[in-house]
């Protein structure tokens, strides 16, 4: 993941506890306010306000205050080194106009931003309408009058909406539909590699066999990931070697994925003292991730072949989440939580912080690396620390590593000037129709 | 005629279900990922070891249909009996005794009807976990009202008829009047409701599966099979059409049977 | 009559009270709404803060009493997910669902009753057999499958009709057809059986023997009798449809109550589920009332049982 200058044109640290943001000039909110450092200050103040229903407020807990140096320079003071401030701001913190931070406009009824298109109408769960903003935007002059966003939950229906021209862009696309779309004259497929990893989390708090690293390795050997990608995922996934994939600090391209080797798996299980195998229930949501249930069923069959007799259980999302957080599932098909290493991914491995998807993995060195890295402002040194963490996780595999799934869009060929972004946000700036 | 046609169809399905382990060429859970979506034997790319094609995980569709018959028949029969028994009983009582009995049951029906079935299904399954038994209970639970209402309406119109009045005048006990006189005369429409409900229940199972609340894998059930196949409808019609045909066949058979029974053959 | 109505309406209040308690319990039994409101990577302190901001940190009885107090003032709470009044969200979605329901029922009556009458008066004929098998097939098609099939044929292949959404009356065609296939099969069956039963009863034979014409036999006796069960089932179907057909609304992205409720249930958006169930529950109870009044009209033997 790489940050692209947007409202902030540059950012740097001054000392250990201060970040300075240079802001873009000549940017206006849709209600006419000129964007500046005061907006950054007011937005962050609101962001941290405990009375606001902001589910991410804690992400900016280290921020002490924001200083307005001049209209286009803001300094953010933190109560300690906060290495990933820029990433956190870009992921979680949209800058708001004063009309909203002062409470004159209700954000849930009328969104006001700085983008090339402004908010017009929202019928919850039904449609959202955006119209072009009069003022030119730095990301490109809007070329279309109006955008309409509609949720269409059924994949087959969505596909037909695109094929018939009623929709110009649809997402997500089930990989199995890709050949049909490729055969359609007026349609293009745009795919990108998502950052978050698909994995199977092994709960060693619940299943004592998982405490043995050989058992966890055995399951990695027993899972024919290439076959799964080829058949179940129809090629719409990229194999992962370890917990930290490409695009995330700490990625190590020298790590090779565990090869499919069921004999090695059986041997490791025998060495660990489980020659006769054992029983495990693999939990999976349905429809949450691409082919989650199908993949789980296929994986269960593979594990059963090496002696780990696996039963799949499909769960509604709410109890599934309760089980993850309550650490009551034996093992579960999952997408790694978050993409910011410091803030989110790493808490899955820190046995002191015991994050959302931490399920019993314990390694002192890993704990130390995770806790030190957050306070390390030097990006290269931080990266090395995560690389080290990644190597430990590769060897000790608290998870069974599967893949990064593809984000797939299908788009009318008439639509020009649009590209996918790894954060999944659809940016409208340059889009035009021919 | 109808009765025999129905009996034959249902008989065949039940036989296949019972003999599934011996008739089926493969286990219903046996995967062969390389055969994912292999077409039926008689089309290009198919072969006779997987006569009716394979699903996305390369499982033999014929095997899943045969074993699925067991699940679908069990789910349908049990939930119809459970729901039908409960509903008929309550409807009968409500219609016959009237007054507070009727009022209480009417309120119960109102409360039940106010709950969308999906909500009940999700709540029960989410709170207690998804399983076949819970599926049967949920399906019975959302269907008893139909029987109750039909039973009540018909009891109301029967209870003042001559033969019931006569039985009562002759000093027959309430229980006897209910079971020997009222029940038999309100049974015909209930049988039709029951037969129709077989399809209802199978469809409800399919709908729940569509919403991610079906039977647990790798258990095959016809409704779930249609739901799983719909993602590949244009690519592999056989994955939905064969289980769909199986459902239709069972429904036709059950209804012919119901009609025949009602008519005394 | 007026007293009867008044009594029925007071019952409505009791039903709604019971329903609201059950919804409350079921939602809380089936998972913690706060953990769905907050992302998995939310910090624990955020989770705790959100919990108290939504008042979900109080005990369940206290939460219920709070809800009840507000509800009596006509405030059904605010959606967790959309931050809008829950009642407003539901009412906003009601017209689309009601329209779909009424069109479906109208289609059902228009096709099902004549066909049922016709086949019921000549059971055993070839036409009856064909109609019977057709109705069986009709009631065994999973609606999501039929819906997708109709979309593939009429929207994709033929390009005659739109696939999803609701912009103009033409958008009604595919979803109502999908729903009507099932209900029509059901009603045709029911009417056919009832008509057949009536026609083979003694009083009809007597009427015929007295020289009553076939047309009058059908309209005076058969139709009226058949309408008793038909009204029951149609009432139930209408009630179900007004609750929103979750599956069909999902397939056609139909902006109705069913889809809203499904999303609300899945995200444990308690206020919306509650509002939807209460609104739909009220509709159910009112329809039941209408059906019962219809009974009175159709079968005078049934008296105002409730009012006694």
Describe the overall structure:
The complex is a heterotrimer of chains A (434), B (265) and C (308). Helices cover 27% and strands 24% of the residues of chain A. Chain A has 434 residues and is α+β, with helices and mostly antiparallel strands. The mean pLDDT of chain A is 91. In chain A, strands 8, 9, 10, 11, 12, 13 and 14 form a 7-stranded mixed sheet that branches. Chain A has 12 helices and 16 strands. The relative contact order of chain A is 0.14. In chain A, helix 6 runs antiparallel to helix 8 (262-271) and helix 11 (364-374) runs antiparallel to helix 12. By secondary structure, chain B is mostly helical. Chain B contains 9 helices and no strands. Chain B is elongated and about 75 Å long. The N and C termini of chain B lie close together (7 Å). Chain C is an all-alpha fold. At the B-C interface, helix 3, helix 4, helix 5, helix 7 and helix 8 of B face helix 1, helix 6, helix 7, helix 8 and helix 10 of C.
- Number of helical segments of chain A? 12
Distance between the termini of chain B: 7 Å
Task: Calculate the mean pLDDT score of chain A and round it.
Answer: 91
- Give the largest chain-chain interface (CB within 8 Å): B-C, 59 and 69 residues
Q: What gross morphology of chain B would you assign? A: elongated
What is the CA-based Rg of chain B, rounded?
A: 22 Å
Q: How would you sum up the major sheet of chain A?
A: 7 strands, mixed
Beta strand % of chain A: 15-25%
What portion of residues of chain A is helical? 25-40%
Average pLDDT for all residues of chain B:
86
| Envelope shape of chain A | globular
The tally of strands of chain A reads: 16
SSE ordering of chain B: HHHHHHHHH
Strand content of chain B: under 5%
Low-confidence stretches of chain A: none
Task: State the assembly state of the protein chains.
Answer: heterotrimer
How large is the radius of gyration of chain A?
A: 24 Å
Number of helices of chain B: 9
What helical percentage do the residues of chain B reach? over 70%
Show unreliable segments of chain B.
none
Main sheet record of chain B: none
